[in-house]
Amino acid sequence: MNMQPYTPEGWDFDTKALSMDTINNVIDNHEILQGIVNSCDENYNLHINLGNGINGIMPRGEIEAINATENGFPRESLCTGKVNKFVQFKVKEVNEDGDVILSRKEVQQDALNWIKNDLQVGQKVSGIVKNIKPYGVFIEIGGGVVGLAHIEDLSVARIKSPAERVKIGQKIDVIVKSIDRDEGKVILSYKELLGTWEDNVKNFKEKTQVQGIVRETEKNQNGIFIELTPNLVGMAEYKDGLEYGQQVDVYIKKIVPEKKKIKLIVV
Fold first, then answer.
1. CATH of domain 120-193
2. Which of 1, 103, 238, 246 has a 20 to 30 A CA-CA distance from 16?
3. Is the CA virtual torsion 193, 199, 201, 202 positive or negative?
4. Domain 197-266 in CATH: superfamily?
5. How far apart are CA 161 and CA 154, in angstroms?
6. How far is the C-alpha of 247 from the C-alpha of 236, rounded, in Å?
7. Torsions phi, psi of 149, nearest 5?
């Protein structure tokens, strides 16, 4: 199993000041570099300061391999949206005018090839939260490739919004749940990395009082769910006036390891 060859843009990736003497080596070694976009010109090409007074140009056609429009170019808003943000790239060439031509598309294509050929179900990868929707979280796992973690894969405890677990820009480790290699789509899961029931229950003892979060307020025959940690939920008897998300003090009445159950009393 190959290790993850890319890091999400803007996170723990070395920036490297180039010189005209070192550019050929960077090209020959197919190095992946990172820099901040200074501007987007009228033709939607990106300009990146490479250090030592060298300006790199990323043509519009080299910005995106994944979300290109029908004419082969990324949307104008995607180009302008890169200004003042980190992007990863390879140095493609130095043209006849002495311009250093950069390509983000090549990095993305390498990442897609990694997904199609090397990434494995069950593998742990690093990512950064890019977008949050009611149904799940989009997480970039490298080279502009984004996977989806559905809301039910964010925690064992029932939550109404993914925003209760993660926030945009958060660095996060996830497990690969499934891969569509033809489409380059990846489904991710977060809850497995929050510890097992057995791992989490070690931090709690019977006949002690702790704090929890109300995760269900509807009255049913069993009671209501109280989250003690993101991957540990107990059951308490129903009590009027509780609200979803409310922090409450609870008394741990009984821990039943063989059934993975915790009986609680709302104080």
1. 2.40.50.140
2. 1
3. negative
4. Nucleic acid-binding proteins (2.40.50.140)
5. 10
6. 14
7. -110, 115
| Tokens coding 14 | 């070395």
Specify which residues 264 forms β-bridges with.
236, 252
Phi first, then psi: give them for residue 60, nearest 5 degrees: -55, -40
Structure tokens at 145: 């490739």
Instruction: Please write the tens of the pLDDT for every residue from 132-150.
Output: 999 999 999 887 788 999 9
> Measuring CA to CA, how many Å separate 12 from each of 51, 105, 164, 239?
19, 20, 25, 47
pLDDT tens for residues 68-95? 665 667 788 888 888 998 888 999 999 8
Q: Which amino acid, residue 70?
A: E
Say whether pLDDT at 38 is over 80: yes
Q: What are phi and psi of 191, to 5 degrees?
A: -65, -25
CATH number attached to the domain at 23-112? 2.40.50.140
Secondary structure (3-state) at 153: helix
H or E segment to which residue 84 belongs: none
